[in-house]
Write a structure and sequence with these properties.
The chain contains three helices and six strands; from the N terminus they run ααββαββββ. The protein is an alpha+beta fold and 142 residues long. β1 and β2 form a beta hairpin.
Amino acid sequence: MLKTETGYFEWLKEHFESAPFWKNLGFKIHSIEKGEAKVKVLVSEKVLNNNHTLHGGAIMSLMDVAVSTTLRSIHTDPVTTVSLTTNFMNPVKEGKTVYATASIADSKSRIQYVNAEVVDEDGVIIANGVGVFSILKGINKK
């Protein structure tokens, strides 16, 4: 791990944002601190469905990476998704920015229980979810 928490967060931001999946969808870390991360995406043509709203898969992906980023803000080991149950509440049109956040409900073991939420720039809830994630202790950190 890097010598300072700030250095680690800078490394983590670059690490995630340089991933091809993040770059292809346009995901960016809006903010990160210990136990909290906010990930954002500008709703553009590349993440729209046939109804011209943000695709449900992009919404779930945004929640997934917000959870992973939040967990990695307190665990230096990689994490993986076990399950992510999602409730879609409101559509969002092109041109809006949406933000995903996560809160850790239980982190006492290798298995982590997490809540996630996606809101648009006006605070309208787009989706929420509940996830189970696993900390991959001892896995090679590339």
